[in-house]
Amino acid sequence: MSTYRIAPSILSADFTRLGEEVVSVVQAGADMIHIDVMDNHYVPNLTFGPLVCKALRPLTALPLDVHLMATPVDDLIKNFAREGANIISFHPEATDHVDRTIQLIQDFGCQAGLVLNPSTPVNHLDWTLEKIDMVLVMSVNPGFGGQQFLEGTLDKVKLVREMIRKSGREVALQVDGGINVENIRSVASAGGDTFVAGSAIFGANSYSQIIGEMRER
Ligand code: DX5
Ligand code: ZN
Question: Which of 12, 48, 99, 115 is deepest in the core (most CB within 10 A)?
Fold first, then answer.
């Protein structure tokens, strides 16, 4: 896949003006909106529920990309899909029946993504890559925005890119955590095609300038 996509994570947005923030990154050239769902159980932080997805849905036609860091996931998937999510990703450790959960997401007409934490082995893709629409490689441990990019995860991105190539399927490779203007090129060289960025985008003065610079790199 040669099209690169930038996915601002609203985790780093100004929550007092969440709607405006989303409209601003859309106008600035975002390709999708990344929604980090945390449950204070799977990860030690608490963020958005389906109501936030519902509130944002009328603001943009761009895909709403829901990253579930929660367990269990199946009921959440139904609720986010009903509120307009387009892509739903989950961690294999967060559900007992990964294949069934992938199917559930796709039955709701959404694209399904499987998330690999820094320590999660890539063999979770062995019997799932033939079915999923996206792999999300975490380049930080999930739970918080603004963490430092873990360089070691670039090897995993390369490995996953190779697995996708061998599968012959069109599967997106999203990378999430600590991505900025300085390192986005190395993530792309390793094989990433979809780049989540929270603090790097929402911490910038000009969203269009930062998204433009990221795309250029
Ligand atoms: C981390 C989240 C990321 C995070 C990215 O658990 O999944 O999406 O918001 O934020 P930055 O770009 O600040 O690392
Ligand atoms: Zn995320």
Answer: 115
